[in-house]
Write a structure and sequence with these properties.
Blueprint (H helix, E strand, L loop, with lengths): L9 E4 L7 H12 L1 E5 L18 H6 L2 E2 L12 H17 L3 E5 L3 H9 L9 H14 L1 H11 L1 H6 L5 H14 L3 H8 L8 E6 L3 H17 L2 H10 L13 H9 L6 H23 L4 E4 L1 H6 L2
Parallel strand pairs: 1-4, 1-5, 2-3, 2-4, 5-6
Length: about 300
């Protein structure tokens, strides 16, 4: 692959889960004397290894990785905190004459790094706990209906099952009296913090579905269920990373009085991951991404 443009342009590898971001970033790092800055909201947490697709020892030997295994599961890491650490990592990499390559599927974090965040109020754990109670007692659709009453624009944009973002939008209104959609419209995300080049591997929906299943199956083969049992035994069942796609389904299975079969659990994780991948594609729809064929991306062009 030919990399053109200013040396100050930040390379960012994006794409839905299982599309091949990691291998593309590794190839780029090896060719460009680069180092990888992970933009993954689960890989930042220690101990959550298998289900997060955390880079293996071999992959970390191929290229230096930053922002992997940096906080404990009981700690908090949000987009603003991650972006500050990513800024520091990028400065450090460039100061040593290397090329930073941001890689990951947590696009809110990538957006925060490239364009900043709206100055909406910080999170409130008391409100989030209240929202969780509503969702558990009345269903996530009930929480989404409450959001629709105060912020129709955000409610229309957000999936009713996306508890984290629905809760955050409702939380912002409850804290400030101003809808999240208004905060975002005023901010605009128009002032670029970095000149960036977004790159991804093009996959057909059918190909991506197959890769998602193969990836999930490999994770189970590697001991994902046993990992979740260990994490639960260490008191991490109620932590933020355990609510991530995949971990949430495996936790429910190991906690069930009658656990599902291995095949049924695999199917459930695959379904949830496919929904997540569709949301990721939606995030990227309006972004200027250079989509490469697999051959061009991994073999050179």
């Amino acid at each position: 692959m030919t990399m053109t443009g200013s040396k100050d342009t930040l390379l960012v590898v994006v794409g839905p889960t299982a599309s091949g971001k990691t291998e593309l970033a590794l190839k780029m790092a090896q060719r460009l004397h680069g180092e990888i800055v992970s933009a993954d909201s689960v890989q930042v947490y220690r101990h959550f290894d298998i289900g997060s697709g955390k880079p293996s020892a071999d992959e970390q030997a191929r290229a230096t990785h930053h922002l992997v295994d940096i906080v404990d599961p009981t700690d908090s890491m949000d987009a603003a905190a991650w972006a500050a650490r990513a800024d520091a990592a990028i400065r450090d990499i460039r100061a040593r004459g290397r090329v930073p390559i941001v890689c990951g599927g947590t696009f809110l974090w990538v957006k925060a790094l490239l364009r900043g965040l709206s100055p909406a109020p910080r999170g409130d754990e008391t409100l989030r706990a209240a929202h969780r109670a509503i969702a558990e007692a009345e269903g996530r659709s009930a929480l989404h209906a409450r959001l629709a009453q105060v912020d129709a624009a955000s409610a229309e944009r957000l999936n009713p099952n996306d508890f984290v973002r629905v809760s955050r939008a409702l939380e912002v209104f409850e804290l400030s009296g101003k809808p999240m959609s208004q905060w975002q419209a005023e901010h605009g995300f128009k002032d670029a913090r970095y000149a960036a080049r977004l790159i991804g591997v093009r996959r057909t929906p059918e190909e991506l579905d197959q890769r998602i299943r193969l990836r999930a199956a490999a994770m189970f083969e590697a001991g994902w269920v046993e990992e979740v049992r260990r994490l639960t035994g260490r008191g991490f069942a109620a932590t933020k990373p355990m609510a991530a796609v995949g971990y949430k389904q495996v936790l429910a299975a190991v906690s069930a009085e009658t656990p599902p079969s291995a095949e049924a659990l695999l199917d459930e994780v695959v379904r949830a991951t496919r929904v997540f991948a569709r949301r990721q594609r939606t995030w990227l729809r309006d972004e200027d991404v250079q989509w490469l064929s697999e051959g061009a991306a991994l073999d050179g062009a």
